[in-house]
Amino acid sequence: MSNDTIDTRKTAASFSQWWPQACNPFIAGSVGGLAEVAFSHPIDTFKVRLQSRRHDGVVLDKYRFKPTFSEFRTLFRGLGPSSFRGFTSGAIFLGANDWFKTLYGADNRKPYSVQFLGAAAICGIFETAIYCPLELVKIQRQVGNHKTVAHCYKALYGNGGVKGLYMGGVPLVWAHIVGNIAFFVSYAQIQLLMEDVAAKPQGADTGRDAVGADVLSTTLAGGVAGSLYYFVGQPLDVVQSNMMAQRYPGERYLGSIHCTREIYRTCGMRGFMRGVVPNVIQAFPGGAASMLAFEGAMWLLESSSGSSEQGSEYTY
User: Which residue has the higher pLDDT, 157 or 113?
Assistant: First the structure.
């Protein structure tokens, strides 16, 4: 057998081992993103309606929730774009962050390192670039600006071109950067704290075979991290929601700075905390469900590919 044939087989074997490990975080991240949407979308709809109502109260009655079946159904408007956004953003949020941390040599036991923080920030930029149009259409549907998703895209593109599809993108990207840092730092820190409380020996086996014992810490860390993600980005989220609730760019706000000034002029600092309660409420179960689904999916994927001994990037 020639050396070229041996080298080719070695390369193929190496690729077959690398490929599942490279794709697993993205697949599991998508599962985690869908789990978060399933738990948080109805509360998110209520939050968007609360945040985007006009400051003078003209359309306040329009967004007053009534406990009827037909009104409850409206809370699921925009679920399609939201699910697709959750599917893609979950892959980026967890999968790409895993790649960036590996690239920069970030250590989960040092969540305040430049490498760890930089990976989270760059991940937020990629998130915004990919699913800002999905977030925009979701909000447009939630506030009832358009009857269908296709009509929404057509109207936004017709009024602003590609730029119209990224209306509200500036506050969104900053919200993602700040939120990602808060999420991953707090998640890692809480996991380390839970490890100390449980007196887990340093360097002990932390593979996914022990995932059952880590359900409590994953749930708590994911829930708290999810709540912090939305709490620290709340002011930016209010600006984003108001800008994205416009029917077309420039209808009410000329830009993010103008939007910020108008919110402060009409509501003061209190206006930037509008919707913080439903935001935090939706974030805790959403974050917990996302990380539990992610960890569970990774365990299944790594077990099926025979790499369960690698352990989780997020399990301590």
Answer: 113
